[in-house]
Amino acid sequence: MQAAPLLFRLPLHLMPFRLHLSFAETVSSIARSARALLAVTVIAPAALEPLSVRSLTRLALHPFAINLASFFILSLVAFRGNAPYLFYAYDGQFEVSLVILDSLFVPPQIGLTNNYVQGLGNVWFAISPKIFLEYFLSLSRAGEFTNFALAYAVSATELFAGSFLLARMIGVSRPAALIAAWALPLLTFQFVGWPLIWNIFRYFPHNATVAAISAITAGLLLLIGVSPLRKAVILGVVTFCAIAYMVIGAPTLLVLAAPQFAMFGLVSLVAAAQRRRLFAPLAVMSAIVLLCVVTGFAFFIQGLTAFTAANFFRDLSIRPAYLFEASLLLWNPVTPRFFTIERTFLLLGLLGGFWVTLRGSGTLRLAAIAFVCTGSLYLAVGILHAYHPFWFGPSPLYFENFLLPYYSIFAAVLCVQPAHVLAAAMRKGCCEMSPRAARAFAGLVAVSIAALPWLHVSEQRRTVGRTLPPYDTPYPQLSTPITAILKQEIALKAGEPFRGRVATLTGRIFGPSMNVDLRLPALADVTNHLAMFATGNIHTAAGLWQDSIPTLLEYNPLMTPAYFVFCRFFFTEPIDQQWRNTVMMRRIDPRLLAATGVRFIVTDAPFEGSARLRQTLDVPVREETLNRMGVRYPVASFTLYLYEVPSVNVGQYSPTEIVTSPTASRMLDLLAQPSTDLARTVVTSETIDETLVPAHLSRFLVNRGSLAVKAASSGWSVLLLPVEYSRCLRLRAKGPDADKARLFRANLLLTAVLFKDQLDADITYHTGPFVNSRCRLEDARDMEKIEITGAFDRRPELAPTPIKEWH
Q1: pLDDT below 50 — which residues of the chain?
Q2: C-alpha angle 661/667/668, rounded to 5°?
């Protein structure tokens, strides 16, 4: 009965793991964590059903328990020693910013709200950090996330445990399951230097958690096909719960798991049909699909992916035709060694899958068939795309990454097979062990498996050189005179007024005839990274998000077509190559920037215009820095300039003239005219019959998951809010004319509020599997009505084109 206090203090026991702790403090923290974990796994169950000392001892000495404890402690120690490689560079720090900003601005919910810090208010990058254990335990408090080692250790341990559970579930022996569980995270996580196998877990560790869950879910689909009805129903419930967790936690990652589910489900149904037991699995799987439709799962994910620039402008996201993207089997194909770690690992997995397909039986054989078919499908699609580019979605490698647990399991099965043959021979001969000796030998094997990786990591630490690439960005990035002004004057706080955002429009020093966006791999903005070297801050993205400074920049595969078209049309040079996740902007138009709420501009060349210069920051550039970064063209020292835009829209724009336009192309033409005063004129595809008068804004607050707007007028009025419009927005107004207030899309991109006399309202954005699951599908239909794909008909030089190659 003493378990409860320890259980509730579990997060506090884990918090002390910090990057600056001494070795003694680390050991002490591990001991406290072990006691807390023991409370959860042993003492708490004992309160419900008393266990004998013998039972507790057997539980603690179970081979899986020994290996799990060994893996977690090794992970924690290794990741603390390899801290610079955790959440590394642009993508890694973007993930950190998501976790931090979610804790500050997102209320507890099932589904997604919009993001006022990164972009104009589109839906967040599709992740709910609160339900991932690695992020929940690693947050010291709201807005403070520095315990990177614990986050990676928890995620890697989840992958370890998931791989072991999956292996045992499909009938793999315990030694092979333990080897597979160890091998996968050791190869895919950065225990020493970079991971030994390229993967998407290194920047986004929660992807490993979802990959483990999706692999187990695929295995459950196989078990449904070989189980009687009652057991199949139970497995179906567990399968649906696993899918629900993925939909709530990281819905777009379900796209990477869906082909795996389809193939494993198909193999399961074929096997059941051959055994003439098709009814139970077919009924259960049909029920799962029906539940996904009824609960809105399907519409929610479809809406997230349909209302994107990548979907409407396929050329924006057609992947370059590279053979190495087809599979890790073809990774860096020009190499002196054929049997690289990636190829060896995948070849062993495929060979193990083929061997079990030919010689295996039961569920393990079905898993091998499904695995080989899925892996072959991914490889075939990847190779086909390399020669005939057509795929506009995630890289084929991402899909293959989600199949890595099966590669590890069947590679381990193949490697352990000789030992099984030897053991079988011994049992038939005179060397058969007694039960006690067999248990002792099994225990020795388990302890050996738990101990050997420590020697491996120690040897790697001794021999592997660790040199970070040239575009390293520390966390947190340093404060500079420019970021200090931005933090003081526009940083967001929940419950406080919106005071404007910043647009980093760099690359202007190169002139409008040079494409500066994709000159170097993984280094899209050269001047920003040169500023990082010189000043300690990149002055965009995570360098600003870490302080809750809102930016016009959005980094999100769910970037909307309206945002892309607006920013591409007005804030980029025609030659600048664009990509599906973001718009690299450098053209300055104060009138349109002000309308979108941009109060400050950071740029790398002087600007002659209405904006007021607030600060400068010299960025010296040395030749050795350019060489280290791999920049192959001369870049002279330059200066960063901080300009303040006058008359910025922070919610007070109240246009009284309505211009109706039915198409996006015509809207852009009207907005582009310098004579269009966006404080007085609004362009929309809707018909507004009311005669408008100016309104007076009293407040425009950013709350957690909502906006609070209060204004007054002497009749019908419109407020133009510097927030992206969506059908997912809901207006909840108070007062006698509250039912007359409504939202509509204005200026192609922004949100306008039409109201009479008084406005006191909350505006919320929510889309999720149970509530508002179809709202982004409605947004997509709105884009079709205004012919968004024809937005560049009058400016074809701005139309997206496929990227031929990464320079």
Answers
A1: 1-49, 518-523, 807
A2: 165
Closest residue by Cα to residue 187 from 408, 461, 409 = 408
Residue 23: per-residue pLDDT: 41
Distances (CA, A) of 643 to 491, 630, 636, 638, 801: 16, 30, 22, 16, 32
What tens digit of pLDDT does each residue of 368-424 get? 999 999 999 999 999 999 898 888 888 899 999 999 999 999 999 999 877 666 555
In degrees rounded to 5, what are phi and psi of residue 113?
Answer: -110, -170
> So what's the pLDDT on residue 429?
58
Segment 167-179, tens digit of pLDDT = 999 999 999 999 9
Hey, what long-range contacts does 359-365 have (CB within 8 A, 24 or more apart)?
Answer: 362/171, 362/226, 363/169, 363/170, 363/171, 363/222, 363/223, 363/226, 364/170, 364/171, 364/172, 364/413
Axis-axis angle for helices 23-38, 63-81 (nearest 10): 150
How many CB atoms lie under 10 A from the CB of residue 569? 23
Angle between helical axes of 297-306 and 775-785 (0-180°, round to 10): 40
pLDDT at 425: 57
How far apart are the C-alpha atoms of 619 and 640, rounded to whole Å? 7
Give the per-residue pLDDT at 634: 82
Distance between CA atoms of 189 and 205, rounded to whole angstroms?
9
How many helices and strands in the chain, by DSSP H and E?
29, 14
Question: Phi-psi bin for 458: left (phi > 0), alpha (psi -120 to 50), beta?
Answer: alpha
pLDDT attached to residue 470:
56
C-alpha 732/C-alpha 774 separation (Å) is 19
- Per the DSSP assignment, residues forming a β-bridge with 640 are 617
86: tokens are 């955790």
Structure tokens at 755: 């109201």
Dihedral sign for Cα 502, 660, 305, 800, please.
negative
DSSP string for 593-606: HHHTTEEEEEESS-
In the beta sheet, which residues pair with residue 617?
A: 640
* pLDDT score, position 20: 38
Residue 724 · residue 750 · CB < 8 Å: yes
Please state, in angstroms and rounded to a whole number, the distance separating the CA atoms of residues 212 and 355. Answer: 23
Tokens standing for 172? 């793999």
Structure tokens at 564: 């892309």
DSSP H or E stretch at residue 593: helix 590-595
**Other CB atoms within 10 Å distance of the CB of residue 60:** 13
Q: Is 451 helix (H, G, I), strand (E, B) or coil?
A: helix
- Listed in order, strand segments (DSSP E) in 18-57 are none
Residues 6+ apart with CB under 8 A from 66: 446, 447, 450
Torsion over CA: 94, 97, 99, 102 (sign): negative
With CA atoms as reference, report the closest residue to 209 among 240, 237, 181, 246.
Answer: 246
Determine the Cα angle at 715 with ends 710 and 719, to 5°.
40
